[in-house]
Amino acid sequence: MISNNKGSALIIVYMIVAVLTILGTGIMSRELSEIKYTQRYSDAVRAFWYAEAGIHKELYTLNHSDANITWPGSGEISNVEISDISSTSKLINVTGYAGNSTSTISVVAVQSGSIFNFAAFGNTSLSMSGQGSVSSYNSTSDPTASTNLNNGDIGTNGDITMSGQAFVYGDASTGPDGEFEDEDHDYISGDVSHASDVSLPEVNIPSSVANATLGSSVTSSWAPAAGDYRIPSISLSGKNTITLTGPTNLYLTSTGTALSVTGQAKIVISNASTGPVTIYTPGDISLAGQGITNEAATPSKLLIYGTSTTSQSFACSGQGDFYGAYYAPNGDIRLTGQGDLYGSFIGNTVAISGQGSLKYDEALKSLNTGSGSYSIAAWKESRDF
Q: What domains are there in the chain, each with its CATH number?
């Protein structure tokens, strides 16, 4: 009986050991599985943030044409693809990976907003002299500019130089290391800040305009119907007159003097326009004499874009009033005329030395030019882990 009891006990011990082994193996297997899952999840999260960082890198590059950003990691992003959806929207795909996990983020980036947010802005410098002033009005509620408002803001990523009797009814902003010496507010009514970091995106010419049939340069009177035109240049003198009726897109392809008006010659923006007259050019513009007459007296009816990636100039020295907006990231703007200027002037450098006043049209802030910064409009993510 004793011998049989010992045998039974041994069998029970073996059974307990077997059960414990099975349980231990199961627990260990589960723990290993949990560890692997945790590692995969951790890799998936890391891959997601790599992809997210890659998206923001590409957005920054789109919004800063002079950006030179290299990925600081050791190959944690791949398959970067940017494709055009339209002239103002892009599809960006970026895949991030960590371990055996990947995360692909796709975004639709839309370029929107106005680029005319200042009365005058110079990327590298801005100067004012002479007797002119800068103020603002709103053509929507006050089309005749009967009331001067105090939002004629000026800015630069560099220095602002003020002299003479020039005065700004608004704020001024310089770059972080920029200077604007006006502690006694002799030249400005508003505030002065030193944190400007404004990026001026390059201008994209609509394909319908860039691919329009190339015509001949214009040197005499001309009155085309509304539409898209591509010609080398316009040079007017004497009493020649060009009448443009919007909506019209005009691409002046010359990299020399693309637009010149002297003497009693002039360009007229017809009051019959149902849309803006938009001029694109990589060349120089010189407006003297009668210059450009905007019959609607509304700046948004005349938009001029400088498309050069190196340098170009815009000189306005006429006696008549100018209603319009000029934008050229690499343009040097010289405003020396006696007439008043209504609108906005954005370029690489801005020098205002005329006797006329510059009145910023605040309505331009709500003008969607399709040339502002890219921002995310739609977002999708897919993971593989």
A: 2-112+372-384 (3.10.450.630), 120-362 (no CATH)
